[in-house]
Amino acid sequence: MPTGLSFRGVICGLLVPGLAVWVRGPRIWGRLAVSLCAVLVFVFLAFLGYTVGNLAFGLLLSVHVTGLLYLCGPWLEAKTVGSRFWWSLGLLFVLAALFYLPARSFLQDHLFMPLRVRGHVVVVSKLASMATAKRGDWVAYTVGRWDSREAYFEHNGVVVQAGYGFGPVIGVAGDRVRFAPDSVEVNGVALPRRPLMPSSGEVVVPEKHWLVWPEFDTSGHGFIAQEQIEATLLRTATITADQMVGRPFKHWFWRRQNLS
Questions:
Q1: Which of 78, 113, 148 is the last residue in one of the domains?
Q2: Extended strands (E) in the chain
Q3: pTM for the structure as a whole
Q4: Which of 210, 200, 187, 42 is closest to 130 using CA atoms?
Q5: CA 112, CA 45: separation in Å to the nearest integer?
Q6: How far is it between the farthest Cα atoms of the chain?
Q7: pLDDT tens readout for residues 93-139
Q8: Which of 113, 143, 167 is the last residue of a domain?
Q9: Residue 96 domain boundaries
């Protein structure tokens, strides 16, 4: 180790953003670097899914790499400019590939995930119990996982791209849903119609299923009967427990989330 540095200090500087500057000193710059990283982590989480949050994530990585290069300064003094460049690039790649991107994926896969809904972001909790979702609860779910193709599926001549759906639960297992031209009734209770709902017919929500009406941007090529489109959307609206992703937080930091 270079003079004044310990193996433990180098490892801590590698694992904690900004701490490398603290380890090497002077401490005033170390405090500034650690404080800046703490602010960037806060901004990234508070504005998860927005451009400013993505910028904070990138700046956090940049500060981390800069601090490590500063910490490794005694090792790099004798290196050429080209060697320092490749060392910096390699360090950036290692931190991004081994720490930052896996950490972000873990957060979105297991804790909370941002979804863009009508131009704004809704943060969904992945820890919420989905088995207890009831009528009126807003849920996020996957769309288009009925076959081996991940990009889309086709039903009745209608092609639906895979992705995520988000909306309120209309019916739970055992509910009788009847469609009419001006309304939809769930167990005899009238609710407002959603776009492209069938104008007639009746379904009973199967066991361990939920009815959540999807919303799609649509484009047409050729002639597809309205009944075919409605039948495809009805099939898409009946989701299973495996398709459930999570429920939105009522508040995310200081913001009340806009679900509609």
A1: 113
A2: 112-117, 120-125, 138-143, 152-155, 158-161, 163-168, 171-172, 176-179, 184-186, 189-191, 202-204, 209-211, 238-240, 244-248, 251-252, 255-256
A3: 0.82
A4: 210
A5: 10
A6: 81
A7: 999 999 999 999 999 989 999 999 888 999 999 998 888 889 999 99
A8: 113
A9: 7-113
